[in-house]
Amino acid sequence: MRDHAAEIAATLGLEVRLVEYGSGSGIKTRMLLEHLKAPIAYVPVEISRSALMESVASLATQFPDVPMQPVCADFTQPLRLPVAARAPRRTIIYFPGSTIGNFESKEAMKILRQMRAEMGDGGGVLIGVDLKKDTAEIEAAYNDAAGVTRDFTLNMLVRLNREIGTDFDVDGFRHRARYNTLAGRIETSLVSAKRQEVHVGPETYVFREDEAMQVEYSCKYSLDDFALMAAKAGLSVQKVWMDADRRFSVQYLVRSTPVT
Length: 260
Fold this sequence. Notes:
260 residues, alpha/beta, single chain, 2 domains, Rossmann fold, globular
């Protein structure tokens, strides 16, 4: 994004309304807002109210001339977007990172169709897509030596214990990430290191030693794979930006054919 932000902003044009799905901390948003010309509004959509308001407060300080219209909602559900004070030339649905890969094809298609509806006539979708790579390279990224991905995965159990009162033995599970070449996705699991019981309210669940609990998919696409899925959602890939090693892409989509 950093290397291509100016060109991407030029492609989006003047006076756009930028609607970001799953805005989080807004780090990638800053790079784009720095280059957009006279944006009409920034509409971050984030399910965590605290993260949303913290991000908006920070961005409002950095971009005081950009109207902020935060929406606390689940972007996988139909949204009611606020009306901008001035009509934009186009609405851009912004979905950076590789989050689209966390959805299986049916769910990803649903999200793309929703984006198509919400951007309106003349609008567009700016989306990050992680590209297919060598199996060893992909698996190494999800089994990093520093243990960042492992800690992120195990933290799911920490949150379950804290937020809904389960009693997972966090040290009794290990992180496993394997690339399924046929499905084109990383499959992340938590594997029980021993036979153990976990209590969820009145229910008791028994995990056998080496029993795996699937926690996440991360789908990877070739450029043709993603273009085909976009086409089925009534969208056409207009432009693609990639890093020098062709590991990751940012793609700009517009409406193609009517979708029934």
